[in-house]
Fold this sequence. Notes:
- By secondary structure, the chain is mostly helical.
- It has one domain.
- 59% of the residues lie in helices and 5% in strands.
- The chain is built from 5 helices and 2 strands.
- The protein has a two-stranded antiparallel ribbon with strand order 1-2.
- The model is unreliable at 99-110 (pLDDT under 50).
Amino acid sequence: MVKTPCQQIVWDVLPAIRAALAAELVKNGVTRQEVARLLDTAPSAVSQYLSGKRGYRIVFEGPAQKLIEDLAREIKAGGVPDVTGRICSICRVIRDDQGPCVSVKEPESYPPGETG
């Protein structure tokens, strides 16, 4: 069965954005517990993002990656009142630019229990 664009966004793009954002936040010195609070998700989800068990199918480059890095720095500085809105903005950039900013990663093997 072919995925609709909306399914692709929900199943692949949004988790990948959240995973990349979680990684950037941790890289900027934010604790995993605080990342979970900031992203309104469970600490276990953050662990899965960081270990590559969730949100691993897309690798961001160029404008999308820069927006994710900028958002992480701004969140760390406490200057983002609407994180969800900013994530939506990043998603719009990805949807508008189907070029080199996003590529589906074909892992050699999927984590246990996942089949791609």
